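Figure 2 data, in text form.
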Amino acid sequence: MTAFAAATAMTAAVADAVTRPLTRADRCDACGAAARVRALLPTGELLFCGHHARRHAPRLREVGAELVTDP
C-alpha cells in the first residue's frame, strides 16, 4: 500500500468514525465496559472506556492514533 493510499484510508476511517456514534453494544477492548473513545489507527480501530482511554492515550498518540470521543 502506498503512503497516499494509507492516508486516504485513514481519512475515510476518521470520517466514518465521526459519523458513526458509539452504541451500547460497543465495548472497551481492554475491560468490556461501555466504550466512550475510539482510537483510530492506520490498521484499524480500538474502543476504550474513559479509564483505559486516559491510561493509554499518550502511547496511542505516539503511534499516530487519532482519538475520537463520543459526545
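Caption note: The mean pLDDT is 85.
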